[in-house]
Write a structure and sequence with these properties.
Elements: H1 23-40, E1 48-54, E2 57-63, H2 69-73, H3 78-94, E3 97-103
Parallel strand pairs: 2-3
Antiparallel strand pairs: 1-2
Helix pairs in contact: 1-3
Length: 105
């Protein structure tokens, strides 16, 4: 069945190499996310950031104390969007695309 597809066909799934990003390029966006999130919360010790790499993107899953969730998200999500923008800028400086998810516990 795969012989029906031509090279570059949109229906062909390319294999994704999860090892394209090194740990050094992830450090800056993680540090920025950690610093900003801890500064926003009343319980900075409860801030946890997990990273996962998929292709050329880094996903940062931010977990905070449930009491601080409203502070991190902000009105209409403005604070969360600002956090995403700043982390994306830090990631771009390091050469990686970032995605920040605020995880509800």
């Amino acid at each position: 069945m795969t012989e029906d597809y031509e090279a570059g066909d949109v229906n062909v799934v390319d294999e994704v190499d999860d090892e394209t990003i090194d740990d050094a390029s992830i450090e800056v966006p993680v540090a920025v996310a950690s610093y900003l999130t801890k500064a926003l919360t009343d319980n900075p010790d409860d801030v946890a950031i997990e990273t996962s790499v998929r292709g050329d993107q880094v996903k940062l899953s931010v977990t905070v104390n449930p009491a601080d969730m409203g502070r991190v998200i902000g009105r209409r999500g403005r604070t969360a969007q600002a956090l995403r923008t700043l982390v994306a800028a830090a990631g771009a400086k390091s050469g990686v695309k970032t995605n920040v998810d605020i995880v509800d516990v």
